Amino acid sequence: MSTSPLDLAGIDDLLSDDEKAVRASVRQLCADRVDPYVADWFERGQVDDIRGLAKDLGSLGLLGMHLTGYGCAGMSATEYGLACLELEASDSGVRSLVSVQGSLAMFAIWRWGSEEHKTEWLPRMAAGEAIGCFGLTEPDIGSDPGSMRTRARRDGSDWILDGRKMWITNSSVADVAVVWAQTDEPSGGVRGFVVPTSTPGFSAPEIKHKQSLRASVTGEIVLDGVRLPDAAAFPDVRGLKGPLSCLNEARYGIVWGALGAARSSLQAALDYANQRIQFGKPISAFQLTQQKLVDMNLEYTKGLLLALHLGRRKDAGTLRPEQVSLGKLNNVREALEICRTARTVMGANGISLEYPVIRHANNLESVLTYEGTVEMHTLVLGQAMTGHAAFR
Predict the structure, then answer these.
(1) Could you give the dihedral angle defined by the CA atoms of residues 215, 243, 104 and 48, in that order, rounded to the nearest 10 degrees?
(2) How far is the C-alpha of 349 from the C-alpha of 304, rounded, in Å?
(3) Comparing 82-91, 143-152, 333-342, 346-355, which segment has the lowest mean pLDDT?
């Protein structure tokens, strides 16, 4: 039975031995490969040897780990969720690398690609030998992807792509981009394309001056007359069904991942409160500090129970999109509040990169927005409750 001060509810008892083993292996990888360096990466805004890190993640089976075949590990959704939690306990940027690779780029190819797409890219991406990115968001188009301005037009049997994508994780280090574009087909609609980043006309300027997700590669995608063969297009999917299905996969990982940042910050605050002496005793012995610690633990525990419930539903094939919205909305919002409260426990030391708290808080400001803003997930849930769509 669990006796951890951060698991007062005994949630560990609900996990299988295999699930605990996956969690332990990811935690160890992060302890060896990420934790000693991530504060420095964040401060410099640069991840050292990101390709080496991708290969290490791939060697553990974490890239596309919930997909089957083509070199993917075929693990459960709950195991994937636990992995996301441990990765984000180290840093949201590392979890973003894994999420974009596995739940966006790889999932898009696995779910919607041709057999040639799958055999060409998925084994290398699963091993971390090829890095992928996912091009949907544009400079002026965020929550309304149906209004995207990137265009794909026919030129003989080829496609010509023109447009820009913005805030794209991994773009400047990627070997392949999954790009979504409006087409000039008679039926119209959005199509997805598998674009090798070496294709002439493709460029990916890195975005600088971020104060969040600094231990993550973020850039643009610029498509200037990018010529692709007809085989580059996903053969069957049309419209927003394609990209939205991928986003739902990534959002599920965030439901778990945000709790990693929360746990890390809560643990840091608890350790600090037990060691910091004021007025002759540890500040953890004061009632107001205990209230903060208890409130943080309550919200973390509720979020973890929700994530585990959604994981079991996903493994059973019964998870609905609005349930993912419920988890993303609640868990990221509460994780951010946990980080902010943890900072107050630590006083001025809470803003130092000697501790993980301010880094997690800054990162979660981005996580709160990407893969669906608070407003959009609220409206998804409002529609599920009332039957009325209030998006327009």
Answers:
(1) -30
(2) 27
(3) 143-152
C-alpha atoms less than 13 angstroms from C-alpha of 72 in its C-beta half-sphere: 24
The token duo for 105 is 């780029």
User: Could you tell me if residue 271 is left (phi over 0), alpha (psi between -120 and 50 degrees) or otherwise beta?
Assistant: alpha
CATH code, 16: 1.10.540.10
Q: How far is CA 8 from the centre of its chain?
A: 27
* In-domain check, residue 3: no
Instruction: Return the DSSP state at 279.
Output: T
In the chain, the percentage of residues whose pLDDT exceeds 70 is 99
- Yes or no: say if 134 and 112 are a contact pair by the CB < 8 Å rule: no
Confidence of residue 103 (pLDDT cuts 50, 70, 90): very high
Q: Return d(Cα 25, Cα 22) in angstroms, integer.
A: 5
pLDDT at 362: 98
Q: Other CB atoms closer than 10 Å to residue 310's CB: what's the count? A: 24
Q: How far apart, in whole angstroms, are the C-alpha atoms of residue 358 and residue 351?
A: 5
Question: Residues 6 or more apart from 352 whose CB is under 8 A from it?
Answer: 358
- Number of Cβ within 10 Å of residue 33's Cβ equals 18
pLDDT digits (tens, 9 = 90+) for 354-368: 999 999 999 999 999
Question: Which residues are catalytic, by number?
Answer: 371
Q: Which amino acid is at 317?
A: G
The pLDDT value recorded for residue 184 is 83
Same domain, residue pair 144 and 251: no
Q: Looking at the domain assignment, is residue 4 inside a domain?
A: no
Which is it for strands 176-183 and 151-155: parallel, antiparallel or unpaired?
Answer: parallel
| CATH code assigned at 211 | 2.40.110.10
User: What value does the mean pLDDT of the chain take?
Assistant: 96
Tally: H helices and E strands in the chain: 12, 9
- Is residue 2 predicted with pLDDT exceeding 60? no
b/e 40-60 (16+ beta carbons within 10 angstroms → b): ebbeebebeebeebbebbbeb
Structural domains of the chain, count: 3
* Beta-carbon count within 10 A of 381 CB: 16
Three-state secondary-structure class, residue 369 = coil
